[in-house]
Amino acid sequence: MAQHVKVPTVGESITEVTIANWLKKDGEVVKMDEVIAELESDKATFELTAPQAGVLKIVKAKGEVVPIGAVICEIADGGAAPATSKPEAKPSESAAPKATGGIKEMKVPAVGESITEVTISTWLKKDGDFVKLDEVLAEVESDKATFELPAEATGILRIVAKEKTTLPIGGLICRIEITEGGATATSAPVPATTTTPSDKNYAVGHPSPAAAKILEEKGISTSQVSGTGVGGRITKEDATQAQPATSKAEPTKTPAAAPVMSSGGSRTKRTEKMTSLRKTIAKRLVSVKNETAMLTTFNEVDMKPVMDLRSRYKDKFKEKYGVGLGFMSFFTKAVCIALKEFPAVNAQINGDEIIYHDYCDVSIAVSTPRGLVVPVIRNAESLAFDQIEAEVVRLATKGRDGKLSIEEMQGGTFSITNGGVFGSMLSTPIINPPQSAILGMHNIVERAVVKDGQVVVRPIMYLALSYDHRIVDGRESVSFLVRVKELLEDPGRLILGI
C-alpha cells in the first residue's frame, strides 16, 4: 500500500510552496522520518520528512510551485523495490494501464455565486498524457481569481477546450479515458516512463505559476529566459534573476526595419487577449454608464488637522498596534459616520425596491498587475483606527499577490478609491454596482486659501463623490460630502462621533 505525501499546512497566510530541492531520488528506498525534500514558502524554508519507510515515487519535480494539500510524492511499501529486478517479464501486461472503456467528462465547476464563465489560462498536461486522480491538469481564470483544475479520474487526457478558450459554468473542458490500475502505487514506476517524455517537452520554456507572475510584472517573455528546473522548466528563481533584453537585441527581431527606419527607433507591437478580469471590468463600467443616472459632486478638504494629528502620534501608534497610521482610517471612519446620517448613499436599488443597510461594508479599490480589484472591509463602522489600518494592509497585500477570495470581494455597500497615490489631482470615479455611490480621494497639494480673511498656504485634497441620482438626491450627496469634510477638518469629531 502506498501513502500519498501532501504539502503540509505551514502557516495561516501561506497557500503554496516551491520544491526547493529533493534530497532523495525517484525510486530510492527511504526510512521513516528521514528528510526527503526541502520546501520553500514566501516566508521560510522547511524540511519534508517521510511518514513511513518504503520506495519513494516523486510526483512534483524540483522548482514546481505546489498548493497546500496537494500530493507531492508517494511512498510505497518496501517490498515494492524488487519489482525492478526483472524488467523483461511480460512487458505487454504491465507496461501500460488497461482501458476500462469508461469516460469521465470534466466540466467547469461552480466557483462563485456571480461567476458565469471562466477562461482556460494554461494546460499543464498535453492531450493524450496519462494523468492521475487529483493531479493538476490546468489553470483556470475567472473574472476574480485564478484556480487549479484537478483530474477527476485516472486515465488518458483528451483536451476539448484549448488554451484561452472561454467557457460557461458547466461547459465541457476535457475527457479522461479511465484506465484500471493507474492510480495504485505499485504501477507508479510504469506511468513514469510513459509521461516523462511529454512532461519534458512541455516543461521546456514553461514557467511555474509564481515564475509566470514575476515575468509578467517585469514585462519579460518566457522565450528570453532559460529554465533551470526539471526538463527546462522556468522556476521562480529564474524569473527573479531574469533581466529585460537590451536594445542591442532589437535588430535581430526586426532585421528588415533597420535599413528603412533612419531614426533607428523600434516599431514592434504585440497583441494580447484580454483576461477575464479585464473583460468583466470593461463590461461593468459600460453597464454603469448606461444603466445609472451617475453624477459627481466635488469639495475640498484642508488636510492640515489630520496631518498634524498623524505626525504627532504615528510613531506611538505603530509601536502600540504594529501597523502604520495612514489616511485611509480617517476617511473610512468619516465615511461611516456620514453614511449613518445619509442612509440613501449606503443603499442600493433592487428592481422596484430600495435596500437600506444598517451596516457599512466599505470597499477599497486596489490596483493589481491583473487589474482593479475591490475587496471589502466588513462592518467598518464598528472597527477602531488600528483595525481598519490592519485590514487595509491585509486586503491590499492579498490583492497584489492575487490571493483574494471571492467572498472577500463581494457585498460592499460603499466604495473608496484613492487616485492620489498615482498623483491624480481630480477625477470622477465610477460607481461600483450595485452600490449607489463612491468617494474619490486625490493627491494632497499645498494651495493658497483664504482663512479668517488672510491668504495662507494649506495642504488641500480634492474630494469627488459619484452617486446614482435615481436613489441619491443632490441635497443628500452634497450634504454627505460636506459632512465628510467637517469630520476630516476637525478629527476630534471622529473620536467623539459627533
Q: What is the gist of this entry?
A:
The protein is of the alpha+beta class. 26% of the residues lie in helices and 29% in strands. The chain has 12 helices and 27 strands.
Give an account of the 3D structure.
This protein is α+β, with helices and mostly antiparallel strands. Among the domains are: 1-82, OB fold (Dihydrolipoamide Acetyltransferase, E2P), CATH 2.40.50; 292-496, Chloramphenicol acetyltransferase-like domain (Chloramphenicol Acetyltransferase), CATH 3.30.559. The chain has twelve helices and 27 strands. It has helices at residues 91-94, 189-203, 209-218, 236-241, 250-253, 257-260, 276-291, 304-321, 328-341, 385-400, 474-489, 492-496; strands at residues 3-6, 16-22, 29-30, 35-40, 45-49, 54-58, 65-67, 71-76, 98-107, 117-123, 130-131, 136-141, 146-150, 155-159, 166-168, 172-180, 294-302, 348-350, 353-355, 362-364, 366-368, 371-373, 376-377, 414-418, 437-441, 444-451, 454-468. Strands 17, 20, 23, 24, 25, 26 and 27 form a seven-stranded mixed β-sheet that branches. A four-stranded antiparallel β-sheet has the order 1-8-6-3, with no helix packed on it. It has a four-stranded antiparallel β-sheet with strand order 5-4-2-7, with no helix packed on it. Helix 9 crosses helix 10. The longest helix is centred in the middle third of the chain and has 18 residues, at 304-321. The relative contact order is 0.09. Mean pLDDT is 80; it is low at 79-95, 182-202 and 247-252.
